[in-house]
Specification:
With 208 residues, this protein is an all-alpha fold. The chain contains three helices and no strands. It has one domain: Helix Hairpins (Orthogonal Bundle). Helix 2 runs antiparallel to helix 3.
Length: 208
């Protein structure tokens, strides 16, 4: 009789334990289903982030190529600007005027020359022209210096934009890596829970 009651008590405990395991298994199944649904819901977001990253990367490459072409144009303009050509032309004029002045000086020193009085007026006019040309040259030099300052500022802005784009690209890479890492972790967790559920089903003798 005592053995019967002990067996009945043991059977009751086994039943309670089975019921407890069934409830725990149901809870794990619910958690597994929730994780699966969360993974399904996250998949479009991951794909969207990847597409967004590719678009940003393409935009950055386009911007970098455009800036490269722009730098080439700036380098070309710096080497061959109309201002520099005009400056060289003015300098050539100054050189020719100096040569003419030297020729007039020689002519004036010639006792047999007949252009003494006319030469004095010509020398004055030449001095005025030389002064004007020098003033023009100084203005052109000031313009060139100002253009160089603008080019330097533009280069700084381009470098700043490049650094900003590099920072954005690095941040996007980090976000993508983090998302992919989370995805792998979630897949691993789901696999582990599926294994546990399978083990519990096997222990409880539950078939699919």
């Amino acid at each position: 009789m005592l053995k019967f009651w002990a067996t009945k008590k043991h059977t009751g405990k086994q039943g309670d334990e089975i019921e407890h395991r069934l409830k725990h298994s149901e809870c794990l199944e619910a958690q597994t289903q929730a994780l699966y649904m969360e993974n399904v819901n996250l998949q479009p977001r991951i794909e969207q982030e990847e597409e967004h990253f590719q678009l940003l990367l393409a935009g950055y490459n386009t911007y970098r190529n455009k800036m490269g072409a722009h730098r080439e144009v700036i380098a070309h303009v710096e080497g061959k600007t109309a201002t520099r050509r005009e400056l060289l032309e003015k300098r050539e004029i100054v050189k020719k005027l100096k040569e003419e002045k030297e020729e007039l000086r020689i002519d004036l020193e010639n006792p047999k020359g007949n252009a003494v009085r006319q030469g004095q007026g010509d020398i004055y006019n030449l001095k005025m022209r030389i002064s004007e040309v020098k003033e023009t040259v100084n203005k052109k030099i000031a313009c060139i210096v100002k253009e160089q300052e603008v080019h330097i500022q533009l280069k700084k802005e381009v470098e700043m934009q490049n650094r900003r784009c590099d920072a954005i690209l690095k941040h996007l890479h980090c976000q993508l890596n983090k998302t992919q890492s989370n995805k792998r972790q979630w897949n691993w967790d789901i696999q582990q829970m599926e294994r546990k559920v399978a083990q519990l089903r096997k222990c409880l003798g539950i078939t699919e």
